[in-house]
Write a structure and sequence with these properties.
alpha/beta; 11 helices; seven-stranded parallel β-sheet; 15 strands; Rossmann fold; two-stranded parallel sheet
């Protein structure tokens, strides 16, 4: 069997860490990425970790023709589809950009999958499909989905539905949607990590950039929520653990003789508040982060974390790393970026 795995968006934050884990597990990952939201320097970082080059297909995932051409020549044993835009706020301002890339990109790669029905397919979904769960903080795959208010979230909601509909049309397909909670941290080597282009949308890069002096202060949106300390609570998962879950997902699908379509939460099972993350960052790294409380943001979910029982039973996977590991690795990564400036 070929060990090649096609990884769309493989130069991105989660994709690059997944390349490392695939390589560690004996696979031969191939990156499909046009660097619209990543930098070619990621490829150098990967080379330092892997000690070898990774095959790179530098084109748009919406180019169905080129994907088909590649798959007609090369045997691949799996496809992991990360390539998409991910900024919630931007998706509200520019919804068509999100529908075009996230939906057209998914349909494009699924056309290839439906032609080559024997290739397992893993999709990057998100806990955003749960919206604000009514009366519960811990969500399992059985928790009702809510149509997300922002177009970004809706592309994930719809993405899962498109996969479900495709599976109904062909029960031989082997597919899995992973609902990520909040990835943070970086590879412990500090050769790859989260590389936001422009102002970060996620908490941890904002913390590390503030500690590095890029921003004067971090604004924490809301401190009067009914949570442990008034700030929002999320399930922060180390990106290396999340990357490892993709290898388990692929292995599960490769082991299936019949078709399947699975949906699995990938989180730690534990919620942490924004203030707890800031506090862990300051304590572990012995640096201070200048922050202020700002107004609540409309649409922010107050508290959510994953029930991870299904990930454990189906994939034999669970998160191993802690928030302290993640804030240490994120800071090491931020310092390595700054040292190259
Ligand atoms: N980071 C998060 O917090 C988070 C949470 C839940 C789900 N996700 C999903 O996980 C996936 C990966 O997220 P990430 O944080 O690594 O994002 P990222 O932006 O760092 O990586 C995405 C990569 O895909 C590439 N890309 C985008 N559109 C492309 C296209 N049309 N053709 C070729 N390449 C293209 C970008 O250049 C980038 O390298 C996304 O689908 C995202 O929606 C992310």
């Amino acid at each position: 069997m070929s060990m090649k795995v096609l990884v769309t968006g493989g130069a991105g934050y989660i994709g690059s860490h997944t390349i490392v884990e695939l390589n560690k597990a004996g696979y031969e990952p191939v990156i499909l990425d046009d660097f619209r939201n990543s930098k070619p320097s990621v490829i150098d970082g990967l080379q330092k970790i892997l000690g070898k080059e990774t095959e790179l297909l530098n084109f748009d995932v919406c180019d169905t023709e080129r994907i088909a051409q590649y798959l007609s020549k090369e045997e691949v044993c799996g496809i992991i589809h990360f390539a998409a835009y991910k900024a919630v706020g931007e998706s509200v301002v520019n919804p068509l950009k999100y529908y075009q890339n996230n939906i057209e990109g998914l349909v494009s790669i699924l056309k290839a999958v439906s032609k080559e029905a024997d290739i397992p397919f893993v999709f990057s979904s998100s806990c955003t499909v749960y919206g604000e769960p009514k009366g519960q903080k811990e969500v399992s795959e059985q928790t009702a989905k809510t149509i997300p208010t922002a177009p970004y979230g809706f592309t994930k909601w719809l993405g899962e539905q498109i996969i479900e509909d495709l599976y109904h049309s062909n029960h031989e397909l082997r597919m899995m949607s992973l609902r990520y909670f909040n990835p943070i941290g970086a590879h412990e080597s500090a050769f790859i990590g989260e590389l936001p282009i422009g102002k970060p949308n996620n908490l941890l890069p904002f913390i590390t950039q503030t500690a590095a002096g890029v921003h004067e202060k971090l604004t924490i949106f809301g401190n009067t929520y009914p949570t442990v300390d008034g700030t929002c609570v999320r399930d922060y998962i180390h990106v290396v653990d999340l990357a490892a879950a993709h290898v388990k997902a692929l292995e599960f699908l490769l082991g299936q003789r019949m078709g399947c379509n699975e949906i699995v939460n990938i989180g730690t099972g534990k919620g942490s508040s924004v203030l707890e993350v800031v506090d862990a960052f300051e304590k572990v790294n012995e640096v201070t982060v200048n922050y202020e409380f700002g107004p609540k943001r409309p649409g922010d979910v107050i508290e959510i974390y994953a029930n991870v029982d299904y990930a454990k039973s189906l994939l034999g996977w669970q998160a191993k790393k802690t928030i302290n590991d993640a804030v240490r690795d994120a800071w090491r990564w931020e310092k390595s970026i700054r040292s190259k400036e």
